[in-house]
Amino acid sequence: MTTALVVGGGPAGLMAAEAMASAGVRVVVCEGKGSVGRKFLMAGKSGLNLTKDEGFGAFSAAYDPAGWLDPMLAAFGPAEVAAWAQGLGQAVFTGSSGRVFPVAMKASPLLRAWLARLSGLGVEVRTRWRWEGVSGQRHRFLTPEGPQDVVADVTVLAMGGGSWARLGSDGGWVAPLRAAGVAVADFQPANMGFAVDWSAHMARHFGQPVKGVALCLPDRRRERGEFVISAKGLEGGGLYAVSRALRVGAGLTLDLMPDLAAAETAVRLARMRAGESMANRLRKLGLSPVSAALAQEFGRPLPADPVALAGVLKALSVPLKGPWPIDEAISTAGGVTRAAVTEGLELRALPGVFACGEMLDWEAPTGGYLLSGCLATGLWAGRHAVRAVSGR
């Protein structure tokens, strides 16, 4: 019987395992940690965002590099992700932003149902089997029983990126793959926070969400999204959506009045009583306390002139001090390069070995894109692995 090895028990690896087991292949999943899906479960603690319900053009545009994942996302995009969750008995709903969540708002029921399905397909899961390297089709693992070698007809690697080491994605696979001749781009943080040197006046706002603003980049891109002020700086989904551009050096400005033109903002300011305090002017303009604090922090001294003040509020420059470290990032850029794999995600340097998920050098923001990309690449690698061993 054809046997397949999957290294890594996250969403990409489990999806590859399902694809191969459904085709009649005997699958063994080896996971370095004591249980599978640890990062998946962590992501679900704040509400598991499965995907984003939007047109394919807008959906695929969220991924970098452009076009690489398009065939995979076309085969397993938002509609397919939602149907897959529903097939596991998890009803889903679409929020006002288009984000799709399970009604349970947790990852654990979905993961339990998924593992039960995989078990029914005959998939074997081995935990605390840490991958150490490969020679041909022979994979070396460090296990509780000591070193073990596994030889399979086909292998799918799904060991994650380089963030959240305590959950298993520590990038320990990079050196062995490079030694085997696989091109791997250095990791960089993605979907991460950025450091800010706050004044003492901002301490009372730490932990507060900033809502109703637009994050603006020099290329005129605007993102409406929420982020959070912390002692270390800024973090949160709205910031993650532009984190790649910020990482490579783009400046960030905030439009604190995104639904009002600068001219109208100036008119409203001019109508206010002369001599009114700046705090009162910002409050009457409709700014939340935390948005007003940001204006005073980054725009000080704020100009009294209505036109000048409106200009500051519509384009508040944010002095970021750089991204947070990789292990504090939600995901990473970098990994196995596009040139190192075939269109079916088979490693050119290691025939019969495929790679998927965050091991590959692509990135996407949170909001459903990241998880959808992992599932889509896992399914793609699993299906092409089956074709490789079946001769189709």
Helical percentage: 25-40%
Helix run count? 14
Rounded to an integer in angstroms, the radius of gyration calculated over CA atoms is 24 Å
**DSSP E strands, number:** 21
How is this structure best described in words?
By secondary structure, the chain is an alpha+beta fold. It contains 14 helices and 21 strands. The protein has helices at residues 11-22, 38-43, 56-60, 70-75, 78-87, 108-120, 174-179, 237-240, 243-247, 262-270, 278-285, 289-299, 306-314, 369-390; strands spanning 3-7, 26-31, 51-52, 92-94, 99-102, 124-127, 130-135, 138-143, 146-151, 154-157, 184-190, 194-195, 209-210, 214-216, 222-224, 227-230, 233-235, 252-255, 316-318, 331-336, 353-355. The strands form 6 sheets. A 5-stranded parallel sheet has the order 6-2-1-10-21, covered by helices on one side. A 4-stranded antiparallel sheet has the order 12-17-16-13. A hairpin with a 5-residue loop joins strand 14 and strand 15. Helix 1 (11-22) runs parallel beside helix 14 (369-390) and helix 10 crosses helix 13 (306-314). It is elongated, with a radius of gyration of 24 Å. The chain starts with a strand and ends with a helix. The mean pLDDT is 95.
